[in-house]
Design a protein that fits this description.
The protein has 267 residues and is α/β, with parallel strands linked by helices. The chain is 28% helix and 28% strand. It is built from 7 helices and 15 strands.
C-alpha cells in the first residue's frame, strides 16, 4: 500500500542522515539600531542553545531594515562587527550558527550575504544571494534589490556531524535548480533565511518550501524577520520547517519568537 511505498521512498535518506539534531529559527524583530540588532541576535542564539538547539539560524537582514537605501548604510566588510559577533556566539554556545544575512561590502560592491559557523567558531560557508529580488506586481509591490546589491555566483554547502547543509537566501528559494544542485552535492537540510512580504508571503512562502522539500527529499527551513507594520518593507514572518514528505513540522506566526524542530526524527 501507500505506507510501504512511502517507506521505500525514504530508505536512502534514512541511511545517509548521520544523526538527528534540533534546529532553531530565530524570528527576530529588527530595528534601525544595528548595534541593538546584533546584541539581540546573540542573546537569542544563547537562548536557543540553552533550549537544546544544535543548529541556530537568524533571518535575512538581521542587522538592519530591509531596503535598498539601507544596504549601503549598514553594510560592512568581512570580518566586521556582525561577522565577529556571530562567530563568537557560535563558540560561546558551542552551536552551529547560520547567520541569516547582512549587507556585505567588498570593494565597490555590496552583497546580501549569509555566513555560517561551526561550534568552534570556524567559518563553514559564505553565501552571497544569487538571485536578486527584482519584482513588480502591479498595484501591489515594486522592489529592485539590484539597485544597490550585486549577485553572488556560488552554491554554498558544508558538512556537519549531522548532515550536509545547504544555504540559500530568500528569492533563491524560487529557483528549483539551486535546491537540486545542493541536494546533488549531498545536502539533507536546506536553510533559506528570507523576508517575503505581505503580497508574496501569503501567496508563495509556504508553497515554495514544501515544493523544494518534496522535490529533493530534504528538510527545508526558512527564517523570516518578525513583522513590523511601521517599516518601509513589511515582512510576512511565519518562519517554517518542512520535512521531506512536504509536511510542516514547525511554524511561527508573525511576531518575534524562536521556532524549534527536530530534524531527522520523522523516519
Amino acid at each position: 500500500g501507500n505506507k510501504g511505498r512511502r517507506r521505500a521512498n525514504f530508505s536512502t535518506f534514512q541511511k545517509k542522515m548521520s544523526k538527528n539534531f534540533k534546529f532553531a529559527g530565530i524570528q527576530l524583530s529588527v530595528t534601525a539600531d544595528k548595534k541593538a540588532n546584533i546584541e539581540k541576535a546573540t542573546k537569542k542564539i544563547a537562548e536557543a542553545a540553552s533550549n537544546g538547539a544544535n543548529v541556530v539560524a537568524l533571518p535575512e537582514c538581521f542587522n538592519c531594515p530591509y531596503g535598498t537605501k539601507y544596504f549601503p548604510q549598514y553594510g560592512e566588510e568581512i570580518p566586521g562587527p556582525s561577522f565577529l559577533a556571530l562567530q563568537q556566539a557560535a563558540k560561546d554556545n558551542k552551536v552551529y550558527v547560520i547567520g541569516g544575512s547582512f549587507p556585505e561590502k567588498d570593494g565597490d560592491k555590496i552583497y546580501n550575504t549569509s555566513v555560517s559557523f561551526g561550534p568552534d567558531g570556524t567559518l563553514l560557508g559564505k553565501h552571497r544571494k544569487v538571485h536578486l529580488f527584482d519584482i513588480h506586481v502591479p498595484g501591489k509591490i515594486t522592489f529592485k534589490e539590484s539597485d544597490s546589491l550585486s549577485a553572488g555566483d556560488t552554491i554554498t554547502v558544508y558538512d556537519t556531524e549531522f548532515c550536509k547543509i545547504g544555504i540559500g537566501i530568500c528569492y533563491d528559494i524560487r529557483f528549483p535548480e539551486l535546491a537540486m544542485l545542493m541536494q546533488k552535492k549531498g545536502c539533507k537540510f536546506l536553510c533559506y533565511p528570507g523576508a517575503f512580504n505581505m503580497t508574496t508571503g501569503p501567496a508563495h512562502w509556504e508553497l515554495l518550501q514544501r515544493a523544494r522539500a518534496l522535490d529533493n527529499q530534504v528538510y527545508v527551513a526558512t527564517v523570516s524577520p518578525a513583522r513590523d507594520t511601521a517599516s518601509d518593507y513589511i515582512a510576512w514572518g511565519h518562519s517554517t520547517v518542512v520535512n521531506p514528505w512536504g509536511e510542516i513540522i514547525a511554524k511561527s506566526e508573525h511576531t518575534e519568537t524562536i521556532v524549534y524542530a527536530d530534524i531527522g526524527g520523522y523516519y
